[in-house]
Amino acid sequence: MSAPSSHPFASFRYCPKCGAPFIEHNAKASRCTECGFVYYFNPSAATVAVIINDRNELLVCRRAKEPAKGTLDLPGGFCDMYETAEEGVAREVAEETGAKVTNTHFLFSLPNTYLYSGFLVHTIDSFFRCELEDYTQIQAHDDVAECTWIPVGQLRPKEFGLDSIRMGIERLLNLLH
Description:
The chain is α+β, with helices and mostly antiparallel strands. The protein has two helices and ten strands, in the order βββββββαβββα. It has a four-stranded mixed beta sheet, sandwiched between helices. A three-stranded antiparallel beta sheet has the order 1-2-3, with no helix packed on it.
């Protein structure tokens, strides 16, 4: 059985080593018809920062770009090559808010999909509780339109535009109560 059109394999029909067509190897991989290269399509690593100040407010961002432009989000993004998830979340927080992360604590992970340039990227989003050097010097940068603090008790998951962030907020609220 071939991969459905919504499956990432539908976009990757040719071998990156020799250019020959792929065929199904199994439900998780394609195999090149010429050189035998087996390609496993694994999710990309992404991070999410959960930053709560001493007033029990969560730092949230408003998305400046699609997907889900204008909705609430948490700081975070894709990990770069050769960096740990902890380094990735700290870098993303700095890029999006200007804040310096001093400590990270892994909370949980959730599978997700993220539409980027018309391509559906499968991700595994790792949520980290992050501590900051200074909680007062937060400014929107990069792909963030604005940053604000929302009291944890006033969080409404439906206001967050990305599925895994919405599910993460629900899970976070359950952990905090």
